[in-house]
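Title: [Solved] PemK-like protein 3D structure

Original question kept below for reference.
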Amino acid sequence: MTSRSIRSRLRPTAEVARTISYNPELDGDADPGEIVWTWVAYEDDPSQGKDRPVLVVGRDANAQTADDVLGLMLSSKDYHQDDDDWFAVGTGSWDSQNRPSFVRLDRVLVVDADGIRREGAILDRRRFDAVADELRSRFGWR
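Solution (posted by the thread starter after getting help):
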């Protein structure tokens, strides 16, 4: 399976609201609190995209699909610092250049669990809880 054939889609964050909890385990599965790498299509041209880090905020098992991973895209572009849809999480080992990163809050990436390329890092509890608080206060997560 090529990275471009991985089933993934963006959904409004409130639409997938659920209980969020911190549970990272570097066991080969993508767990809440981990930063993993997967193919993310560009919104303006879904036929193109790139491999990028994603903060796992949940999992979604349903009858139609296998286990899906729910994640927030990360970006190191500093112009996100003034955008309310992006939240600063600081630096970490997921970025080889140690640049400050931001997670996109208004869209959740839903990725087939088989589409996760690798585990990259664990976001510490304090920063994960700050992201979770934003999801709870702004998008109805519990």
